[in-house]
């Protein structure tokens, strides 16, 4: 998933979109590739019931294809971010005067150090003007401003356990590299760190850890958890339809182990991450890739061993790092800025550089599972993309005459197929009026990729998980469970398929064929739109579809994305597409703010042992909840090994229960085997004060 050259720069070429899968029941929808891997037309119904071991891929006659004519990809600079010193002469003097007479709450002493803590989650959506939560936009903006701010001498970051994806880590590393180009010092301090934490820390000039630090770096793993055994014990029969050889969404319900196709695609993703980690750490620390792999295999127990081999700068306790910072500020403790991100990020671009243009570039951020809103979409205990909200933002951007171009940030495994299509349509209409650059974050798969298809160009990080062009839908037969608990349900209906989605019994062969055809219609619609958006035939797209997830690097190779990079690369594309000189400073306006979801507060205290219970409860009718609570007690002990299932997965099962097609990717979490998890699920708080701050 990581793909960098020895200089750390990003390759610019046609690219492919990818989606990773950890939870085998998510539905995937994706895009088409410009270069076919070979034709993969398989004929048949493409139907998979609970009794089937594998999914057959089929393809029927295609409808007429209207290929989207995209503007050619403009020539981009070799580097995404390049530091430029603040203006000198009269302009520089004026900037110094503006900084000196800043408002009291924005004043910063000369020679100050920006010190803060990174931990837990780091959302890609701004958290609100009065929120203390940290976000990717806030952090990256503060790093860029600190690099140009003459009052800032350096940065010091305490890195606690993180729960963010590899693509975000890549973007953070790029901004740290940008800061270091200013010639200012950068320092990282760690007490508990796994591969993700060290991957980020390795980008800093100096790395310190206490002698007793827990820095066990041992490698990476990927896996899946499977509920079929649990469902069998409680009498729930999953009836899942999915299209695509690699469409592992549904495996968690249908299988007791990993399929060969799932193992194939996950192994490819794991290889990308392992190779990328080795290359980037080697480049940052002056080592070879072979030395990085040897370090992982050595499995050092003591921080002293990492220091002796040059993987960290030295051994220091937190108070010693604090003393070091005081020395670098001339003994003036007040120049070690505590929780400074908002203060530094608030400095206007016009203060640090030349005046901005009258045009603006809008950023619309989308994160979470996709639903249609109005109570009919895909439930979620965390953040969610609600189609009406996103469409409202897109319309506002389209009608705003000052907006020259739009950057659409996507961090989603997908979800409701209809909601994905409605947003795609609005994005397509917006792109017909002004340039839209899709910028993928950690995951932009299935429905997330569906959204990106409507954009003018697509940018993905090498670590992004994307693709997963396929469809999954299904229902659950609760007949055996009803018999077990003594529940009876009688239904009177009119119409051949009126009871096709009933949970009281399995589907008949006629109902199954009808249900199967609906899944194929959804798949062909998605596949053909993807093919048209990438300018290829459905046959060519089929070769890179079939529900397979790709890394951003792999997606580039197969033509599913256009460029590798982050929001900086997307900004370059947006400027060029809108005929704005790259050197011109253009205001970037955020059109999205995070909403507080009370359900998300429940996810932090979940117990892994109860996750099968939560998942099963989500598929049962409310009248059976109390009966199942008592029944679950007898099988809970046999539900071990499910710690990888997230609380939100219960909501995804509930989405399948509706019988509607889902464009949802099975998310596979590629974990660093030694990563600490004490802050997983928590959002980093800007008010956290590192290095002994009061």
From TrEMBL:
Q: Which InterPro entries match?
A: ClpP/crotonase-like_dom_sf, Pept_S49_SppA, Peptidase_S49, S49_SppA_67K_type_N, S49_SppA_C
Which residue intervals define the domain Peptidase S49 in the entry? 179-327, 429-579
Record keywords, A-Z:
Hydrolase, Protease, Serine protease
For this chain, one GO molecular function annotation is: serine-type peptidase activity
Protein's GO biological process: proteolysis
Q: Name one Pfam family in it.
A: Peptidase_S49
Asked if the Swiss-Prot or TrEMBL record annotates the protein with the keyword Membrane, the reply is: no
Q: Which family does it belong to?
A: Belongs to the peptidase S49 family.
Name the PANTHER family on file. PEPTIDASE S49 DOMAIN-CONTAINING PROTEIN (PTHR33209:SF1), PROTEASE 4 (PTHR33209)
The protein depicted here goes by the name Peptidase S49 domain-containing protein
Specify the species: Auxenochlorella protothecoides (Green microalga)
